[in-house]
Structures are given as structure tokens and as C-alpha cells.
What we know:
Blueprint lengths: L2 H12 L3 E5 L4 E4 L1 H7 L5 E3 H5 L4 H12 L7 E5 L5 E5 L10 E3 L4 H12 L3 E6 L4 E4 L1 H7 L3 H4 L13 H12 L4 E9 L5 E12 L5 E10 L1 H23 L5 E3 L5 E4 L1 H7 L3 H4 L3
Antiparallel strand pairs: 1-2, 1-6, 2-3, 4-5, 5-6, 7-8, 7-11, 9-10, 10-11, 12-13
Amino acid sequence: MTADFHDCLATVEAAGLGLWRRDGPDAVFLSARAAQLLGTGETQLGRNAFLALIEAQDRDRLGRHLWSGPPTEGCVEFHSAAGLRLRIAGRDDGVLMKAGIDGRADDTRSRLAAIVASSDDAIVGKTLDGIVTDWNNAAEAIFGYAADEIIGKPIALIVPADRREESATILERIKRGERIDHFETRRQRKDGEVIDVSVTISPVYDDAGKLQGASKVARDITASKRALIALAEREAHLRSVLETVPDAMIVIDPAGIMSSFSVTAEWLLGYHAAEVIGR
Length: 279
């Protein structure tokens, strides 16, 4: 694999595309994203296995471009049996440098991509083995990893050690086709900080209905969780103060409904707090 091909892998895959290239006299290399889009499950294919993925009318022509004849000039497009487009571009030495593979591009996909990229929530794609395939801008901001640092790596990079079993359980549920809504858990940023997140995880299927992976939408709720904890601590402090005041302390709302009834009030008036709160 040439250095320039290797360097562009992360950037191209972050855009939802895959790369493939001829790898020796009788083989083809597929990037992780290309293998996912083609549904091969493998990143190394023999020549015949690769050509079998191409539409019949394009198969012979692609074979001639890759394994015989002069180097490709310009950009040539072929179509896979799955309806994907494959483009190849040649070099003077006849070695295939790179080839993009993507789904049928249309306005809907472009709009969806723009929405994903601009979302304030982290949107992450991963395989059924927990390998990151997609990583939007918000995921970079929340978790601290740039897309090219984490795409192709295990999602376990952002899972604290004490949550690894939980993460494995989630993947098993996804494999059963389950969806997980607004699940609160903790994740670890690149700088080591552990944050609170609310995640929704859904199974992802291809056009044929085959389970391909999972998508996760994560929201950083660290600030709101801290605010709730601080509020609970203040309320607990107030209750402890009320319990130590020697006078009967009763709190009522504007309608005269009791919301707090101290221990001294119970002793003086003969009611338990549970009997009068809300009345």
C-alpha cells in the first residue's frame, strides 16, 4: 500500500466513503468502510471474488483496467451489483492509486450529511465488533478525538474501565436488533476526564435488511447532572437545618398546601410528616 493511499484513508472514510486498490497480481485491498459498504466482512479479496461484486456488464471492463492493458487515464466509473459506484484513477506506472466507493449520491443524502455534521450531539457509527466507522464534529468536541484518530479504532477508547462490561452488553443487544433510548452512562474523553452522557443507540441495516452495525447519538449531560447533584445537596442541607431547629417548622405554598413538616412540628402537633405533606 503506497504512503499517499494510507495517508488519505482516514480523511476519506470520515466522509462516509471507502477506498480500494489492487494489491498484488491477484488481490484487492478494501478499507474498513469499503468492506462494510460492499458487505464482504473482509478487507482482502482475491481478484475473482472482487470482480464477482461488480455488475455483469462492467465486470470484464474493470478486469481489463486493473489487470491488463495500459494504465487508466482520467477517472473511470463502474457499478457494483449492490448499486454502489466505484471509481478508479490510474498512475503512469500502471499501479492503481485509489478508488472511491460510495452509495448513490442524491440531495437527500447530502442534506442528511450536513445535518449530521452540524449536530450539537455526537453522532457515531460503529461495526458490530465495536470498531468506529463514523465520527461527526460534535463527537470530536465532546470526546476530544479527531475523526482521523479514532475511525478504525475500537469504541472502547472512550469507555471507562468500569463500564466495559456495560458496553459489551449494549453491543449484544444491538446484535439482537434492539434499540436503546436515552440511556445514561459515563464515557472518557481523550484527556482522561470522565463525563456523563445520555445515549441512544440504534441498529443499522443495509438496503437488503442485513444488520451492518450501530449508530449512536450521545449528549454530554455532565453540567446538568452536576446541577442536579448540587440542588439535592442544598435541599438535604436545608432539611438538616430544619430538623435541628427547636421550633416547629412548617413550609406551605401560596395555596396553603404543606410541603415540609419538621420533627419538632410532629412532636408538638401530633402528626407525622407523611400524614400532612401535600394537604
